[in-house]
Design goal:
The protein is of the alpha+beta class and about 200 residues long. It has helices at about 45-50, 70-80, 115, 130-140, and strands spanning about 5-15, 25-30, 55-60, 65-70, 90-95, 100, 120, 125-130, 160-165, 180-185.
Length: about 200
């Protein structure tokens, strides 16, 4: 498991929705030290603080994304808690795996031996939005509407993306709560053969 540490990186100019907000800072950390609720849907903090969490990042606007690695049992617990979040919609996207997360890969400036050994594989992610920030960025009359694809849109649904293949999650053993809408984007779910011609 990674040592818990906070990191920040400048994402650059993303437009000025509010006076003085010319630059966005993304914050996050490695490890699974508990995080506090940030105006999330009720129940989201329980998913955020699962012991299987590898890292998280916040920004550049209202979103916080959490990264996880685990087996079937760990993911089943994640989905159980996810289904308890109080939200009009809950979304689960299923993808072919494996998936590597760029933020877990050591960058060229890192000399830490542990960082060099870091495994970038992620089995699932959890995305949740700060409701106050969402409305500030997307519903503020002073905001520049043409810069936000979510302008005047309702608060986005909590979302999990899971990657099947290359990890240890057995999808056929996962029971998805009825409150969760599943979007299966795997090649096999689309009825496309994984083999080329000949």
């Amino acid at each position: 498991m990674f040592k818990s540490r906070v990191f920040t990186c400048v994402l650059g100019l993303v437009g000025m929705f509010l006076a003085g907000d010319a630059m966005a800072i993304r914050e996050g950390g490695f490890g699974n030290a508990p995080v506090k609720d940030q105006n999330w849907r009720v129940g989201a903090v329980d998913v955020a603080n699962l012991k299987s969490r590898l890292a998280y990042w916040h920004g550049p606007t209202s979103e916080t994304q959490f990264l996880y690695r685990g087996n079937t049992e760990a993911f089943a617990e994640a989905i159980r808690l996810f289904g308890l979040i109080r939200s009009p919609e809950l979304e689960l996207y299923v993808h072919d795996g494996p998936h590597e997360e760029w933020s877990l890969k050591p960058n060229r400036n890192e000399t830490d031996a542990e960082a060099r050994k870091r495994d970038p594989r992620v089995d699932w992610t959890f995305l949740i939005h700060d409701a106050q920030e969402w409305y500030r960025w997307n519903n503020d009359p002073a905001a520049l509407a043409d810069l936000s694809p979510h302008y005047r849109q309702p608060l986005a649904a909590p979302r999990i993306d899971v990657y099947i293949g290359g990890g240890s999650i057995e999808w056929d053993k996962i029971g998805v709560p009825a409150s969760v809408r599943v979007v299966d984007e795997r090649v096999s779910a689309l009825g496309i053969s994984g083999h080329g011609p000949g």
